[in-house]
Amino acid sequence: MNTSNENGLNRASKAGIINWALGSDRKIVILLIAFGLALDSTNWFFFLTGTLPILGIQQIIYALFMFSLCFQRNKYIDLIIHFEYNAKLPSNDQSLDAYMKRNRYFFYLITFINFLINAAMNIVPFIMGLIKLNMSALRAFVFSSLQISFFCNFALFRFFVETCLYIHTCFMRVEKQIDTLNKSTNGLSIEHIRKVRRLYCIAVETTEKFNSLLWPVISTYFVFSFVSVHFIFAKAIADASFVTILVCAGYLSVFILVAYNMVYINHLATRIYQSAYSLSYKTDLLFAKKEVQLFLTRIERSDVGFTFLDLFVITPTCATTLATISLTLALAAPFLIK
Predict the structure, then answer these.
(1) Domain chopping of the chain, boundaries
(2) How far apart are CA 31 and CA 237, in angstroms?
(3) End-to-end CA distance of the chain, in Å?
(4) pTM of the full structure
């Protein structure tokens, strides 16, 4: 493994417990997280009455995905160095490291906010029950499984967000190469254009490979989380209380974080268009202009990004449309009930 591949692997493998476990081949950690997610599904099916039982199905799918991930470690390692291995670009880019570090701070902030909400709604009442000796074995089991699932869910979210960030950096590096050509005072040749076209195709291929690996998480989260957030938001509007507002804030913060990183892949893949179009002004060669046109045609397809069951690409427009529909229905819910 060359230095570029090692840097690419280290950038991803050191962030998050799941990435660390995959990078160091500690399958027991992955299995424990899978067990924690599966354990949480029993709460939604049997103990947490008045909640959404579909969340139990979501946790089972997550658990099965984590279990399958144990046997796909080599595939994951190949994916995380796929771009570096084929692009042959220097990977010690401080601006990319700063970008990932900055976005990780957002994840830490959202995790901390949700931990405070969890503490206020679950941990403090549980401690008060212990002090008053008003505690049953069932309540202790439900509390324990909820806390385990809290950390397991955020471990999975961290893994997913880190994957999105890695894909972001792939397209950002392609865009940086195009900007370098635009700023260059030298003439633009066919080889230069073909090189950036090839880099773009490698980034697209990397995205598609990760999409095929993560499709259970992507599809499940896209449907189940959207439905659950919608109902929680509608309940917060119809019956506003301190508890419902706290729950709504927690779910919305995680949903926005994950959805943003997911759709930003498509945004970066299409944002390159303007920079690529500028290349056409750098050359008078007919064949070079045709290469630029082929590049622009590929970008114009706007079909790069994570997909829902390979049916459609999850784009910013798609997410905005669904959010608008959800908000409209949530605001109309109190009047429809009356």
Answers:
(1) 3-337
(2) 39
(3) 65
(4) 0.88
